[in-house]
């Protein structure tokens, strides 16, 4: 684990971010005392989405788009 002062973080922020991205943990110090810790969030979890298409119900009759077209034609 590395440590860096607030001033070092401000001056070298892009380098600090690269280190964090590579898995490094950075402790931020102010006046020699640790005040915060920066770590990577880690890999994103895979999201399991429900299969909405398989659950869809087939409706009978005119489609919504067809109803809208007919409604617009009636108004003209």
Structural notes for this entry:
- By secondary structure, the chain is of the alpha+beta class.
- The protein has a domain at 2-38: YefM-like fold (3-Layer(aba) Sandwich), CATH 3.40.1620.
- Helix content is 41%, strand content 20%.
- It has 4 helices and 3 strands.
- It has helices at residues 6-11, 13-21, 52-55, 64-75, and strands at 2-5, 26-30, 33-38.
- Strands 1-2-3 form a 3-stranded mixed sheet.
- Strand 2 and strand 3 form a beta hairpin.
- The longest helix is centred in the last third of the chain and has 12 residues, at 64-75.
- The radius of gyration is 28 Å and the shape is elongated.
- The termini are far apart.
- The model has no long low-confidence stretch (mean pLDDT 88).
User: Based on CA inertia axes, which overall geometry fits?
Assistant: elongated
Percent of sequence in beta strands: 15-25%
Total count of helical runs of at least 4 residues: 4
Oligomeric state of the chains in view: single chain
**CATH class category of the domain at 2-38:** Alpha Beta
First-to-last CA distance:
72 Å
Order of helices and strands: EHHEEHH
Average of the residue pLDDT scores:
88
Biggest sheet character: 3 strands, mixed
How many E-type strands? Answer: 3
CATH topology of the domain at 2-38: YefM-like fold
Low-confidence stretches: none
Which structural class do you get from the secondary structure elements?
Answer: alpha+beta
Radius of gyration: 28 Å
Measured as a percent range, the helix fraction is 40-55%
Strand order, biggest sheet?
Answer: 1-2-3
Second-tier CATH architecture of the domain at 2-38 = 3-Layer(aba) Sandwich
């Amino acid at each position: 684990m590395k440590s860096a002062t607030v001033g070092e973080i401000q001056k070298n922020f892009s380098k600090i971010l690269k280190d964090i991205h590579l898995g490094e943990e950075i402790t931020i110090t102010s006046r020699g005392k640790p005040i915060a810790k920066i770590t990577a969030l880690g890999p994103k979890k895979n999201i399991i989405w429900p299969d909405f298409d398989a659950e869809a119900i087939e409706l009978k009759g005119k489609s919504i788009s067809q109803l809208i077209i007919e409604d617009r034609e009636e108004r003209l």
